[in-house]
Structure formats: C-alpha cells, structure tokens
Amino acid sequence: MWDSKSLMISIVGSSLIDVELPHLTFPYHSLSSSSLTMTYTAIGDMVGTTAGAIDNEAMNLTLEAIQPCVTEEMNLMLCAQYSEEEVRIALFQMYPTKSPGPDGMPPLFFQHYWDSIGGDVTKAVQSFMHSGSLLT
C-alpha cells in the first residue's frame, strides 16, 4: 500500500519541478490544478491506492503554493486552432527528403504542391490536432 508521506514534490520558486516516490520520478515543468489531481490519482493507482486515500488537505495546500505561469490570454492563444500559414511554415521548415509520412510521401511533395493541396493539408492537420486521429 502507498504511504502518502513517501511522496515528495519539488518546487523551485513557483515552478513544480518533479514528483517523486521511492524509485520513481515524474518530472513536470508546469501543472494545473486538474493535472496535479490526475498526477496524485495516477501515482496512487500505480502503487496500489485510490484517489480517495489521498490527503486532500495536503493536496490543496500544495496547489495553493503553485502560482500559475500561463495567463488566461496565453492559454487561449496556445489552445487556438493552427492557421494555414502556421502549417505551411512548419512544413517548409522540414528537410524536403527526410521522414516520409505514413503515406510514404516526403515533405518535398507537400512543399512542391502546396499551392494546390495546402488547404487540404491544413484541414487534415487541424482535424488531427483536434481529434487525435488521421483522416481516412
């Protein structure tokens, strides 16, 4: 059974650096309240306890000590859908003959025919980023 006293959370300034259990380390660069709750749950599940066994008072105290690094405006910008220009820039930064995609086509193909297929490529990228699955 997991002993909540064996959990170590490292905070430097207002940044959560890592979460440690004996023989396990989980590095983090930033976490939201819901992420930390999920982390507590996942760690507890990994070592044989449930989220109900977690000391909620200690967790809330820890969450109060963590200051958000991302403002609401920054979060909206980070969560916004990619534009066609952003997809084009990313594609044209790829080396033309390296790393063919699942369709076997290297970036060169998409770069060369961007004017014809750019809109479709952008829709496919946006769909993937939203749903996590490739268009069929």
TrEMBL record:
Protein name according to UniProt: Uncharacterized protein
Source organism of this protein record: Rubus argutus (Southern blackberry)
